[in-house]
Amino acid sequence: MIKTQLVIVSCLVSLAALAQPYPSRPVKVIVPYPAGSTPDIVARTLSGKLQSALGQPFVVENRAGAGGNIGADAVAKSAPDGHTLLVAINGPVAVNKFLYKNMPYDSDKDLLPISLLATSPQMLVVIPSVGVENFKDFLAYARAHPGRLSYASVGGGSASHLTMELLKSDAKVFAVHIPYRGFPPAVTDMLAGNVQAMFAIIPAVLPQVKAGRMKALAVTGIKRSALAPEVPSVAEIGYPQLESLAWIGLLAPAGTAQAVVSRLGNETVRAMRTSDTQETLGKQGFDVVASSSTEFSAWIRRESAKWSRVIQSSGATAD
Fold first, then answer.
1. What separation in angstroms does the CA of 44 have from each of 49, 58, 283?
2. Residue 43: partners with Cβ closer than 8 Å, 6 or more residues away
3. pLDDT tens for residues 120-157?
4. Does domain 20-119+246-314 correspond to CATH entry 3.40.1080.20?
5. In DSSP terms, which residues pair with 121 in a beta bridge?
6. How far is it, in rounded angstroms, from Cα 38 to Cα 64?
7. Are 124 and 170 contacting, i.e. CB atoms less than 8 angstroms apart?
8. What is the CATH number of domain 121-242?
9. Which alpha helices (H) appear in 28-134, and where do they start and end?
10. Are 135 and 217 in contact (CB under 8 A)?
11. At CA 59, angle to CA 274 and CA 107, rounded to 5?
């Protein structure tokens, strides 16, 4: 009898929660990267729009560490009521599960995709002393000098690392991996001539390219980037299989009510497609996507399948 009463009370509480307007209190938006990072800029831009549209504060909280796992885990373990959200890039959503031996959460089961917000290609850059003029010259140089070409990344398992591993596997070239803690030290060492090449987010290296201290060979998209329209895409030079996009998405804890997901998704699409949002993200090298939840889920599955193969073949790890 007591158990039956408890079940009834629990159901009534759940129904009452569903009946409440969303959001009913301030919403926490966790970004698992430092303030000022591109995901942080995107999260703050989106949060301001959602706050205006939905009538409650959307407060960004930065919880960096462990390749994004710390912040993502906090969201995964939060109440599935739409009042704690995650804005994250590829790693903690689709890639880290293949890089870390002990993940604190299951990204497939514990997180619910709401919208793929934006994507951006990376840029392949080399220092001038390498002496190559284009992407195909770079491949020829790497093949002619096995073991002499080194490349920087912003850490083991990062997009800058895995994209070069994808190229190495596909083009059958060899290059030595030199990991760094972020783009600033990697760029500094490249300019000093200690490492020859790198895949990087475009804003991190574009000033050096414009100054002639680095040479851009390609961007890893199907089309050229508006930030560097003079640089060819991998697709147009015959390597569409090397497409590698950095991306940012909005997610909630698994079990969040469909009504909440739908409202969040609809308002997110409206917010992301405004001209000022597109301008803000464009300055970061990102193109707005603003997908549906279903489309984002399919995207994550494709990305997971692609990068799991690269990680397995290269032996990449973040531990």
1. 9, 9, 15
2. 29, 31, 60, 87
3. 999 999 999 999 999 999 999 999 998 889 999 999 99
4. no
5. 245
6. 13
7. no
8. 3.40.190.10
9. 38-54, 69-76, 90, 96-99, 107-110
10. yes
11. 85
